Amino acid sequence: MYSRTKRIHLARRVFNSMQVKDIATWTSLLNGFVVSGEIKSAWKLFEEMSHRNAISWTVMIVGCVRGKEPVRALELFKRMRKEGDDSPTSITIVAVLSGCADIGALDFGMSIHGYVNKVADLAMDVGVNNALIDIQPCGSWVTLMKRQENTLSALVVICKDVGIFIQDGLRRLALSDVPFRVMFKKD
């Protein structure tokens, strides 16, 4: 409530007066700082936390991406995987992939893609799959086709690129059968 009304310092005062603070109260205040745009205060609180869960890690990762610090978000994700007890959620993965797209970190994004393919719940998540499509630079579908086991996912990437080709004035390439010949070509 306090963070939505831009009175996060009142929330901090309430938090400081609490006798018992659990992970939910810590994460709630953390989210309040992020929502209020007070990333420095969020970082300070995050480092004070004795225990973090997937939600608290995700709040900071999302805060970094939204705060135009995608490199810091990717570093924090690596730290989460190393130190954290909980697995990343679909929201965590979408935020990290967004950070990858922001800085063109295709290799890191593809490593996340490999992780996603190993986790059944993430592999079927629409938001995660859309984020995976967004990290693909225009024209990278040839490389992606070789990596894709799921023809439908590859077709979606091709359709995205066809739309980009049309926007960029490359209508002939977009409307040709080249993307589809590559997709169905046997090695």
Give the ordered list of helices and strands. HHHHHHHHHHHHH
**Principal-axes shape call:** elongated
| Rg of Cα set | 20 Å
The overall strand count is 0
**Amino-to-carboxy terminus distance:** 58 Å
Counting helices, strands and paired strands, the structural category is mainly alpha
Largest sheet: none
The total of helices stands at 13
Helix content: over 70%
Mean pLDDT value: 78
User: Would you identify the regions where 5 or more consecutive residues have pLDDT less than 50?
Assistant: 165-175
Our estimate of the beta-strand percent is under 5%
GO molecular function: RNA binding
Keywords: Repeat
PPR repeats: 22-56
Protein name: Pentatricopeptide repeat-containing protein
Overview of this protein structure:
The protein is built from 13 helices and no strands. The protein has 187 residues and is an all-alpha fold. Helix content is 73%, strand content 0%. The longest helix is centred in the last third of the chain and has 17 residues, at 151-167. Helix 5 runs antiparallel to helix 6 (90-103) and helix 6 packs antiparallel against helix 7 (106-118).
How would you concisely characterize the structure shown here?
PPR repeats lie at residues 22-56. Helices cover 73% and strands 0% of the residues.
Set out the fold topology.
Elements (H helix, E strand, L loop, with lengths): L7 H10 L5 H13 L3 H10 L5 H13 L3 H14 L6 H14 L2 H13 L1 H4 L2 H9 L6 H7 L3 H17 L3 H5 L2 H7 L3
Helix pairs in contact: 1-2, 2-3, 2-4, 3-4, 4-5, 4-6, 5-6, 6-7, 6-9
